[in-house]
Amino acid sequence: MTQLSAGLQTIFEHHTEDYQRCVATLERAVAAIVAGSLDDDLRAAAQREAHKLAGSLGTFGLPRGSDLARELEQRFALPGRPVQSDGEHLANVVGALRGELDAKLADRHPCPAKRPRRRSARARR
Amino acid sequence: MSQMHVLLIDDEDDIREVAALSLQAIGGWKVSTANGGQAGIALACAARPDVIVLDVMMPDVDGPTTLRRLQADARTRGIPVIFLTAKAQSADLRGFARLGAAGTLTKPFDPMTLTDQITTILTREG
Fold first, then answer.
1. CB contact, 8 Å: B26 with chain A?
2. What CATH number has the domain bearing residue A96?
3. How far is CA A77 from the centre of its chain?
4. Nearest-CA neighbor of B111 among B44, B9, B16, B46?
5. Burial class of residue B39 (count of CB atoms within 10 Å of its CB; 0-12, 13-18, 19+)
6. What are the φ/ψ torsions at residue A86 (nearest 5 degrees)?
7. Which of A8, A56, A66 shows the shortest C-beta gap to B15?
8. Total domain count for chain A?
9. Separation of alpha carbons A103 and B112, rounded Å
10. Distance (Å) from the C-alpha of residue A41 to the closest C-alpha of chain B?
11. CA B1: distance to chain centroid?
12. What would the pLDDT profile of A20-42 be if each residue is shown by its tens digit?
């Protein structure tokens, strides 16, 4: 199990930039919705990236991330949607998705302030 | 009993890597991988795996088309195929069964139980 857990962590880290890129595309798409300027190419890209995240994140222990991504995928797949009035809700969903990913990455890179302090030379004596 | 040999066909690198790791580490299975339907069919013909785990949505040749081509080839038609998909609504599942899939696994999957899920499907298939 330890071997599997370590391997999963390595794979996640190897693909972190891909997941970040997917979320960035979704953020761009939602910004375009809010601005009323979402075109077909960006909508298709957002649907594709949401599909990827929906299938992947839960595998790495982020089931809520997969659920949020699936909601986005479904929204972008609806004919004629999303529309400008969907923007606020979708911005919240993408924000939550970003939060899930950031929290996982924060676990990977613990804040330096939380790392155990090295004992001072005086304390070691 | 000889070592189980699985062929994973999925265009997503991370999914192939996680599934392969899971099946090797937990099941001790031999795993081959292909990143698309075309490459997967060629590998299936050459390697004759015990089971094929096949993604549904792929850009070159999609899962259902890949399955039909595998069924049409005498070298591969007897190999059970399990779909792996993020589309898991009941209508989709019925459609996959009609195509002749042995079963369906949903994404995201649990790497800890993937081996058991495949074993359960194959046992049910007989």
1. yes
2. 1.20.120
3. 19
4. B16
5. middle
6. -80, -10
7. A56
8. 1
9. 22
10. 16
11. 21
12. 999 999 999 999 999 999 999 99
Which amino acid appears at position A29 of this protein?
A: A
State yes or no: cis peptide before A116, omega within 30 of 0: no
Nearest-angstrom CA–CA distance, A103 and A62 = 10
The top-level CATH class assigned to B5-121 is: alpha beta
Please report residues of B whose CB lies closer than 8 A to that of A54: 86, 107-108
Domain ranges of chain B: 5-121
Q: Report phi then psi at B57, rounded to 5.
A: -95, 110
Complete DSSP assignment for A84-114: GGGHHHHHHHHHHHHHHHHHHHHHHS--GGG
Phi, psi of B77 (to 5 degrees): -65, -20
A5 to chain B, minimum CA–CA distance in Å?
9
* Chain A residues 86-105 with a CB less than 8 Å from chain B: none
DSSP SS3 for A40: helix
Q: Which two three-digit tokens encode residue B94?
A: 């019925």
Angle formed by the axes of helices A2-14 and A16-35, nearest 10°? 50
Q: Are A8 and B111 in contact (CB under 8 A)?
A: yes
Rounded CA separation B7/B10 (Å): 10
Question: What is the domain range of residue A39?
Answer: 2-124
Enumerate residue ranges in chain A where pLDDT < 70: 1, 108-125
Contact A3 B13 (CB under 8 A): no
Give residue-wise pLDDT tens across range B4-34: 999 999 999 999 999 999 999 999 999 999 9
